[in-house]
Write a structure and sequence with these properties.
Blueprint lengths: L2 E2 L12 E2 L5 H22 L8 E2 L12 E4 L5 E3 L2 E3 L4 H10 L5 E6 L5 H13 L4 E4 L2 E2 L2 H11 L1
Parallel strand pairs: 3-9, 4-7, 7-8
Antiparallel strand pairs: 1-2, 4-5, 5-6
Helix pairs in contact: 2-3
Length: about 150
């Protein structure tokens, strides 16, 4: 693709062709898309409303090819935002992890959920061949820790 520089008059003047492509608009669009994905990626995890328990421990990052099992306050199971009946949880997990190389599962359980629901989910994961289970929590705020310490004194 060539562009002509200068006015186009038919008087036999020679014009120089410009064979460069202006990539600045492309870079602008790519930066905007990068920002959109950086903002949207954390929102993809929080599709189901749960109140995660708070932890002082510093957590690692969640892998891109993750499988997240969410347990809401009523004990309902969700695999990547899809509701799964409790009686089908084990079969669904076996089907998912039978074809995966990484046998990792992240569990997001509401802090008000019954402990038995979490144990049921962990048992189904173990039967499905999951080798690594991780519990997702919210970080504890430093200001909340200070106020707790002052109340205890």
């Amino acid at each position: 693709m060539a562009f002509r520089l200068g006015p186009s008059s038919g008087h036999g003047e020679e014009h120089q062709d410009m064979a460069e492509i202006n990539i600045i608009p492309l870079v602008d669009i790519m930066l905007v898309l990068l920002i959109i994905f950086m903002v949207a990626a954390p929102l993809s995890i929080s599709g189901i409303g749960v109140q995660l328990p708070k932890s002082k421990a510093k957590g690692g990052s969640v892998d891109e090819s993750r499988i997240i099992l969410t347990i809401d306050a009523e004990g309902g199971f969700f695999l990547d935002k899809q509701k799964i009946p409790s009686e089908q949880l084990e079969a669904k997990m076996m089907a998912i992890f039978a074809v995966r190389d990484k046998k990792e599962l992240y569990i997001r359980a509401d802090k008000r959920v019954r402990y038995g629901s979490v144990v049921d989910a962990m048992g189904a994961a173990k039967l499905a061949g999951v080798s690594k289970l991780s519990m997702l929590t919210s970080p504890r705020q430093a200001s909340a820790q200070k106020s707790d310490k002052t109340k205890a004194l």
